Description:
The chain is mainly β. It has helices spanning about 1-15, 250, 315; strands spanning about 15-20, 30, 35-40, 45-50, 60, 65-75, 80-90, 95-100, 100-105, 110-115, 120-130, 145, 160-165, 185-190, 200, 205-210, 215, 230-235, 260-265, 270, 280, 300-305, 325-330, 335-340, 360-365, 375-380, 395-400, 410-415, 420-425, 430-435. Helices cover about 5% and strands about 35% of the residues. The strands form 7 sheets. Strands 1-7-6-5-4 form a 5-stranded antiparallel β-sheet, with no helix packed on it. Strands 2-27-26-25-24 form a 5-stranded antiparallel β-sheet, with no helix packed on it. The structure holds 2-acetamido-2-deoxy-beta-D-glucopyranose (NAG). It comes from Pleurotus ostreatus.
Amino acid sequence: MLSALxxxxxxxxxxxxxxxxxxxxxxxVTTAPGFAAQVIFSxxxxxxxxxxxxxxxxxxVERGLGVTAFTKTTQGGASGWERTVVISDPGFTHAIxxxxxxxxxxxxxxxxxxxxxxATKTVSGSTVVVNGLPxxxxxxxxxxxxxxxxxxxxxxxxxxxxxxxPLTNIDPTARDPASGRSQVRGFKLSTPGxxxxxxxxxxxxxAYGIRNPAGFAIPAVQLSAADARPGLFIxxxxxxxxxxPGFTPKFVNDNPxxxxxxxxxxxxxxxxxxxxxxxxxWNPTADPVGNxxxxxxxxxxxxxxxxxxxxNDAWCGQQANNVPPSLSFQAHSVPLxxxxxxxxxxxxxxxxxTTYANDAFVSFRGSFNRDPPTGYGVVHVPFxxxxxxxxxxxxxxxxxxxxxxxTCIRPVGLSFSKDGRLYVSSDSSRELFVVQRGPxxxxxxxxxxxTIPFPTPEAS
Length: 460
Ligand SMILES: *[C@@H]1O[C@H](CO)[C@@H](O)[C@H](O)[C@H]1NC(C)=O
């Protein structure tokens, strides 16, 4: 009896399932003019990070289940997608990176490297690459970014960036980089196998004081004529400040901003980005009566949560203590992934327009604690960023925010296919979908050419 059950379970695990194109969204979405969105698979187990392998299979971390692969195919004359289980392991939390036969995933406490075969969509053997990640905090998803410089594709230049979240919503221990909390570290993968695992604190400190570094990206183009090195962009989920003394419910409904941080330029590594003491103003007039002290300040201004009298607004205004964000997002957006659009080898009428080349796209999972709800979509961040408060228009969003969270899309992972379409995972609606150019897209006239302003590092 038991063995029969095991066999049934194994069969279910190994069996490929097929879903034809055309399933409806659980809740309707709207797209920006000229774009269209389509479900490609339904009823997943909390899909989080996604990545294409070199055979155009879309690999997905299904949190609580493992890693699955989605392959475009036809069955009985219908075109659709086939799902197979690659790794069965409920410990994977969020992130996935794939590079040839190297498949990286993170659990709450470690980063693992699997040997992966994209032809068979199977793995053989795994190694722990990084261990000792803080696994006991509120946020145990550890974002990953594998960076291989395009100019010198030598193995020695490959870096794996890994993020860690806070112990608590507002975590005073994160002031000390040695806490290992709320920071990003880089691990050189020059000699795989020889000195693994590397411990979390042995990684090079890239940035700290970033509450939950949820997603990373490095643009393909250099940031400015003066700086030949690429910069690392890091999404930060701002703290909920509902319980911090001094702020009214009306104020915290629209503050603080979520942030896009940038690590770039001389002396950029290992700097503090403000958490837990300093944060970013989104709406200065959210409560002119209860919190009038912010009314005269601009959106994007840095302010103190006054957790410590010495770390006040003036302290937060100094870049040596707190590097300000490169861009602010609407409070409670919950940005989780960022991808730059680099037009691929294949171009078709459904590819994103080339005018969007080198622009970024950011998933906003959305927050339950704002009235009315916000997020529940994917935004377009035009590059270069010309102002830290420039607008980030939605390219796809839940059609009726008043019904969210409900069964609304809650975008998490993003990945561009070779043919320039944007794939998106939505965890609580359990969907994978794609956003592509529709037949009515019209190309906007080109804007002025501007260079990226980024925080000027101070001598240290
Ligand atoms: C997803 O699961 C629900 C409930 O089992 C089912 O009604 C629905 O048809 C499934 N969706 C697809 C596209 O298979």
